[in-house]
């Protein structure tokens, strides 16, 4: 199983390299280190959300409310900044708020047993609506944000902006959590075989709840980063972004049926999409083709996944199922 | 249809004339807005008051519902009909829903015009647009050209590939591009009115065209995102961001220098012009029919087209000299 996972990631890594090579033939400046750093920074929000979404998908759930959660937390961050609160407090508050919003999803899934796609479809609208209630639809613009608020994600430390470092730190922390802690293993157990997980003493609902909280906290943090980076907050920011996040996970080989997927896969899936998004404006492809190209890339990646999904790991699990 | 409308209009005009001469007191013009408490309309009211003061003998009734619903506006208009005002100038929440009520008003001899957001032709005598596609198209390229005495490359950052407004404006812009021979429009990209995509497209433009001198973004999301991208790329002073935006959203970027100037209609002028037109129509010294010309005081005059619609003026240009005044308004 491990070998198959690595091979799927190897295919993805190869695809990314080929993609970069093709782009470089059209626009050589794209693969300059400074530009790649820029692409990484630009993809940081997608990476952060894909990490959270990955954990949720691994537990057999899906969170469609991440973008709305991001937008709400971003707006709250901008409002707190307007009220003159210090940045560390804002950061803590948005992570806490994001986690709380995730917890709402988690509780509904856990306690009421509603399918996660329905729960998060509902909360997605509620969270967006809440932004409207908070602001009456007004925008918060660049000149209404303090300089420190806008500067933090942009500050360059050791060659990379803080925003990129935050994404990298989250990747490392998530990799540790998933591979080295009981909770991390529980996520896989719950998604891979819920019945077996119960027999080993893992609460399926509680584990799913924690996955939602984790995804929510990451979305909250990303909310601040997003608003500070684009220096604008309004109801519709990151509209439709949840689909990008799910697409990044799917491209990264996270099984929608739960139980399998890796941090490396999610990160590469996000990078793959991020590179396409950043390359399309500079390679001179007609905008009318851009969406078709993005869509085709997703389909091709999924076709790869589907081909490698017929893996022995699944069959072993099925046999285990029959034996119980 | 057209004869009926003409007959109706003439009847309304005649009644208005009679009503006008019967009452020697102030002419009462009602400015009905989409909702009270919106900065844009408060500013339009300011313009209407200015027009009233200039004309003399005119009382402005500034009114509207508390939320932007057609039902609320119908109630407001019904009460204005009961008060027998001389003219109603409305920015409608719904193109069709207000028509029956406004027809009733016209039957009672009240002059009815729409402005900003129009009602269907049978529900008003004329409609005042803040500007026209041709004027907007010319303005956006002129804004870029004004700050490029030596010319240079400019690019357009639009909304989506299917946005009717933006596509029309860009088409009109390309028609008059020949008048600005030194300004070379090198490309059009689409930010889909998403902050992140617009930001990336603006970054892409600066990479693809290293000599780019200006980005024209005729969309309020795009212009803000482009200004931020230029700021982050450290290209303030090198790449000028212009187009259509709202003063409250652009204030920071005008102050930082990322945008030297941009345009949007001026609500004060719009309220002023709507009042002027309502006054002349109600007084009977102008007629609302295709091809007619109506004077609008300091704004000059407007000419009605075949749909009895008129365009007020070029969009108003905002820059460092007036941004503070308007950023608090809308």
TrEMBL record, chain A:
It is found in: Cell membrane. Keywords: Cell inner membrane, Cell membrane, Membrane, Transmembrane, Transmembrane helix, Transport. It is a multi-pass membrane protein. Its main location: membrane. The keyword Transmembrane applies. InterPro entries: ABC_transp_permease (IPR001851). It comes from the Bacteria. The chain crosses the membrane at residues 43-59, 89-110, 117-140, 160-179, 186-204, 210-233, 245-276, 288-308. The keyword Transmembrane applies. Part of the ABC transporter complex LsrABCD involved in autoinducer 2 (AI-2) import. Probably responsible for the translocation of the substrate across the membrane. The complex is composed of two ATP-binding proteins (LsrA), two transmembrane proteins (LsrC and LsrD) and a solute-binding protein (LsrB). This is Autoinducer 2 import system permease protein LsrC.
TrEMBL record, chain B:
Keywords: Signal. It comes from the Bacteria. InterPro entries: Bact_Solute-Bind_Prot2 (IPR050555), Peripla_BP_I (IPR028082), RhaS (IPR013459), SBP_2_dom (IPR025997). Residues 29-285 form the Periplasmic binding protein domain. Its main location: periplasm. Residues 1-24 form the signal peptide. It is found in: Periplasm. It holds the Pfam family Peripla_BP_4. PANTHER family: ABC-TYPE SUGAR TRANSPORT SYSTEM PERIPLASMIC COMPONENT-LIKE PROTEIN (PTHR30036:SF8), D-XYLOSE-BINDING PERIPLASMIC PROTEIN (PTHR30036). Belongs to the bacterial solute-binding protein 2 family. This is Rhamnose ABC transporter substrate-binding protein. The gene is rhaS.
